[in-house]
Every structure is written in C-alpha cells, then in structure tokens.
Sequence to fold (366 residues):
Amino acid sequence: MKILRVVSELDFGGVEQVLANSIPLLSQKSGVEVSIIVLWKGGKVSNLLAKQNIDIHILHFNPRIPNPKILRILYKMIKELKPDVLHSQGGEANFHGILAGHWAGVKTIIGEEIGIPNHHRYWKFIFRWVYSKAQLIIAISHAVKDNIVELGEVVEDKVKVVYNPVSIGEIDHDASTEMAGRLSDEIEKPFVFITTCRLVPIKNLDRLITAFSEMEKEESEKPKELWIVGDGPLKEDLIQQAKSLGIGGKIKFWGFQENVSVFLEMADAFVLPSLMEGSSVSLAEAMAWGLPSVITKIGGAPEILGNSNSGILVDPLDVSSIKDAMSTLAVLKATERNEMGERAKRESERFLPEAYIISLIEMYKS
Fold:
C-alpha cells in the first residue's frame, strides 16, 4: 500500500510532531510505502525523517489558498507516485491535496482537520465542496468534529475522531545531569511550571507571563520559575515583557528543543493557556511524564485530560483564573501532586503511537 501524506510545513509544531511520532512506525509496517509532500518549507522534522530514509518532497511554495501552481505540481507528482491513499493535514494541505488527489484519481482520500476553524460563509462553502471529494475526514478531537459539522463543512457520518499520538523521548543523561547541576546552584530548588509550544499569539503566553508575575507578588516565599520551551515570532516581545515586569530572571526561554523530555522531567507542573486548542500533543506529552497541569477549557484540550482529574481548567482570557490555578498547584502537597501526575500518566496511555498507527491503517484499508 502506497501512502502519500501532504502537509504545509515540516519544521516544528504540533502537526510536525505527529508525523515525527508516527511516520517511522508506519513505514516499518509490512507492505507499506510512505511518501511526504511538503507544500512550503521543511526544517527540523523533515531533516529528522529524512535521516530515517523517509521519502520527502519539499516544494517551497506559499500554501496560501488558492495556489494554482501547487495544484498543478501536486497533480503531476500524484500521477507519478501513484498512491493508494492520500492523507492531508491542515487547511492549506487539505485544500490543495484533496483537490489534486481527486483530479488525479486517487482511490482513497483522507483529509485531517487539525484545529477549530473560524470560517465565514464563503470559506464554509469552499471547504464543504473540497471535503466532498474525500472519503473520510479525521478530526483530532470531538471539539474539532463538532465544530466542522456545525459549520456544515462535512456530514457527521464522514468524520472520525483520532487523537494525536505521543512518543516519550529517551532522556539525554548528559543534558539531564547538566540541568540538575544548574538547578542545584539555586539555594532552594524552584517550583517549575513549564509550557512547550510555538511562540505565537494563539498560545496566550503574554497572559501566562502576567499571571505568573501576579502570583509571584502574592506568594513569593517559595521560589518559582516559568520555563517556556519553544520558538516563534513573539520570543523577543515575551522576553521584554518578562523584564518589564521585573521577573526576567524567573522566566527561562529555552528555545526550540528536539527532545523536551529532560525539561519535562525537571518540571513540577505543565501549563497550557491557549486561546484555542483543537487538541494538544504537548499536554499529552506532559501527562506521559506524570505532570499535573493547568489548561485552557476552550477547544479539545480538556478531552486529553479525560476523566483523570489530573489538571485544572482555566479561562484563558482571565489572568486571575490562570494565576489562581497555578497557585493551587504550587502550594499543593507533594503527595497530592504526585497522585495527580500518576493519574495523568495512566490517562496518557490512550495516545500511544502504536494504537494510532493501527487506527490509521484500518482507515486506509476501509
């Protein structure tokens, strides 16, 4: 079975991490060949997959809808690759991939909605037409499914919910020792809140920093730090915000990290204050490491917690809501936090890559 995956970018981020976690396993299945077409740019994840001999084609075209050149090139490449299944992920990739695959006569076409769209009437009509050319639409949470069905972009029976897979990276022991050494320089080990994400507006990091600052003013007896692991266009603005609030030394910007495991291992609680989340690979990773969490109540993130009672839901628009939840975890007894973490770890088993691969193959064959 020849499978063609179509994505807009393959540098770093949620979609990219899903492919990094799943494509190597998928390509190892007997009788399966996997190719990836990247509409725009590659980067960290494309390089990682290329080292594992995954067939990757990077087009370097702006995927903004519509791009007739992408449609023409995709059509020609699909005719040459002759895939049995085309699976696209994300709005731009779905638009171009589904249409080109339909025109090229691909037997099985699957689109994947990776977030909660906010389309006006014109785009609702466009995506209803595009999705009509696919046999199946994957939604990464029930919140995403409910949204696209309510928008009228796809009928409910055509949507299947499949949660993103999570792979726990191996600990780099040298890095772990170095990190422990840094923390041992502190008079008292700080309570570490961590968030791992792209530094973009929807992640709501400015409110998170403000909430952390206000928590510090109210309760500063026990040392606390906020670790922000990731990169993006807002990095310098966020650094300046932390400095202006007088807490620059208590907020650490670690930049992009290929393996966040050492950071999660050293942290005490995870924070996800996003204005919107279709789902969250980062949250599931943190749960797999046994971290209790503070997460947005908007979108599909609460579904990742399930019934584990391992996190506190917050209103991402309310700084006080974020601050109060962080304060609650910071002063909670260690035994209670550990119990929350153990429940989180058990819940995260739902997102093992092997189960995800089984679901995909079943859909590809149906």
User: Anything to note?
Assistant: The chain has 15 helices and 13 strands.
